[in-house]
Design a protein that fits this description.
alpha/beta, homodimer, six-stranded parallel β-sheet, 44% helix, TIM Barrel, 250 residues
């Protein structure tokens, strides 16, 4: 897959950058393929699937990947992956009404962010770049809950196996996110900018997954960014400059 | 429990209104207790727990409850309930880092709203009042995803057992919500007002669950409402007038 992608990029080098698929079930092969993709194929980083049927991101297997990303100055993208065969309720066999995708997928991203944050990845690798899908999913909405509920809960004594720096909520600010809200949602994108900061939000549309093969998602995402109550340089950062910096373009 | 609550209200009748706990495992007893609580105890409605260990809200047992709520002009409150014994990932035995409560609970509310909406409750009972916790959880954030992703997904043919009116997203606007964001979050509350409308957002603080026994949640929620970019009459509706109308006070 990565070799085929590299061949496409070689034909359109001004248009595409490569993001590698990794064999996450084998930690040594995972890191070796990241090295090969970045050093030999010229890719800008890698993607991993997250969710209850994927490997949790605080699994020890991922430690070498985090270190390799920093060593290579490469970027990691997360994408949710829960399938419809995980039922929403125990008396059913399949998820209903596409809840697994509409709500479950942003939940998967949110859960992955929990695992990265509480595993202390940002304490050990402060410069690591991890880009989350769907405007950081539910995390910007839950900012106050993360800031105020956890300090009240921790004395209860349920599993909190972490030694990361406090306040916990500040770890979550170190992720990057894209702007894919599946439509017009300027206030949602403002929440993301408020939470992650203007340097950590990158244009992303989720095309082509709409009823017009992506045209709605692209045009509505651009319209959202235009309507955001932010200074012009933040808009320019989201639309181009953050990606140029991270992907070392131009 | 309901009789003891009624005794407290009898001592402070200008201060409290009663919301009944219902025996949801027995559908006939559930409806009988709602009738008794409203007609004999003077309660304004009832509360039910939602989540993967509770009964899903499109279960046929709840149909009589929805009808009784409308017949009695009573209100239903939902509260999430997922326990920490539901693990986040299959290789663990307990939820970690309080994910079950910080993210899982708003997920439970969101899932409950899916079930009420897609069961057609608002088509059959357009005047029903169902108040959701935590600013309608993830639903206002997912507005564009509900509006644009579902029409693209439905032709895929996964379980979508519903005959409700379209667009689906408009059913979700018929819920009410409270303002409990666990802290300062004016933009989150603006999202809720934009989505549900100014007549369907009611003051709620989630006190006493903070490190100062509720004082933070109450003061920060009031500060959020003060900071919202809304007209003064919307602020007055949230702080008092919506509750007065729904609970028939004054």
């Amino acid at each position: 897959m990565n070799d085929e992608l590299a061949a496409v990029i070689a034909r359109y080098p001004a248009r595409f950058r490569g993001v590698a698929i990794l064999p996450v079930s084998d930690p040594e092969a995972m890191v070796a393929e990241l090295h090969r993709a970045v050093r030999e194929l010229g890719f800008v980083g890698a993607y991993v699937a997250v969710g209850p049927t994927a490997k949790r991101l605080d699994h020890p297997d991922y430690e070498h990947l985090y270190k390799a990303l920093v060593d290579l100055d490469a970027t990691l993208w997360l994408h949710p992956s829960r399938p419809p065969i995980i039922p929403d309720y125990p008396d059913e066999k399949l998820s209903q009404y596409y809840e697994w995708l509409v709500v479950g997928w942003p939940y998967d991203t949110t859960s992955a962010m929990f695992r990265v944050a509480f595993a202390g990845v940002f304490d050990r690798y402060p410069t690591i770049r991890i880009v989350t899908h769907h405007h950081g999913a539910f995390i910007p909405l839950l900012e106050a809950r993360l800031a105020n509920a956890l300090p009240a809960l921790e004395p209860v004594g349920l599993p909190m196996p972490t030694k990361i720096s406090k306040p916990y909520v500040d770890h979550f600010r170190k992720f990057y996110c894209d702007t894919a809200a599946s439509g017009y949602a300027p206030k949602v994108l403002e929440l993301a900018v408020d939470f992650f900061g203007p340097d950590r939000v990158l244009f992303g549309s989720d095309a082509p997954f709409d009823v017009q093969d992506g045209r709605i998602f692209i045009s509505e995402t651009l319209r959202s960014i235009e309507a955001m109550a932010v200074p012009p340089n933040t808009r320019a950062a989201i639309l181009a400059n953050n990606a140029k910096r991270i992907l070392k373009i131009g």
